[in-house]
Amino acid sequence: MTEYTSDEMMSVAAARALGDGMSCFVGIGLPSTAANLARRGHAPNLTLIYESGCLGAKPTRLPLSIGDGELADTADAVVSVPEVFNYWLQPGRIDVGFLGAAQLDKFGNINTTVIGPDYANPKVRLPGAGGAPEIAASCREVFVVLRQSTRTFVEKVDFVTSFGHGTGKGDRERLGLPGAGPTLVVTDLGLLRPDPETAELTLTELHPGVEVDQAVEATGWKLKVSGDLATTPAPTEAELRILRDLTRASA
Q1: Burial class for 211, CB neighbours closer than 10 Å (0-12, 13-18, 19+)
Q2: Is residue 40 in a domain?
Q3: Which of 3, 8, 51, 83 is catalytic?
Q4: Contact predicate 163/107, CB 8 Å
Q5: Has residue 1 been placed in a domain?
Q6: Annotated catalytic, 70?
Q7: How far apart (Å, rounded) are the C-alpha atoms in residues 217 and 235?
Q8: Is residue 50 one of the residues assigned to a domain?
């Protein structure tokens, strides 16, 4: 079996969640890596949309930011930021929003704003919201990708930057949010999906070589584990070749 890192497993697993023909609102970092891997592999007709207004971007390397000129150079169209949000995102025209997080709680709420209970004097001030709150609210569904640890997987986020499922099933509907919210969380240990009855994130797959105890110990709440726990298929040589070519091109 080809050797691979836990980050490569995470990127491949996230990429596989994107289907050919989908439209995907892409965040920079791990979400962008996964989305570009999918488009170069099993989903050549995946439409990548970036917050800067680039529709159908086909970067030859991983973009450094949403303002990277590579996105505009390779896009089918470049429109204004208000058009991206008012015409494409808010009416629910985008299938998947792909987000990262600094903190994530058991109901899929995301924090990218501050670490610590005092907003005015936080322990760490993070980059902030950007377009993530609108993506989390309006995309038909949301995928989150991040490394799993008790630092990132917390019982309750310090600040709700992007609304997931609130305090449980039904909160999104009560607030009138049109999208389904987080339907998949991809980590370096496995995959989590919301329980259909409670919306609490539940471990449904483990990556090869990872034990349940590892995932439980890396979670800041009492992690629920599916009774049908599956094992993620290992990355193929083709997937790793595409991923590593993307990484080298961006070095």
Answers
A1: exposed
A2: yes
A3: 51
A4: no
A5: no
A6: no
A7: 25
A8: yes
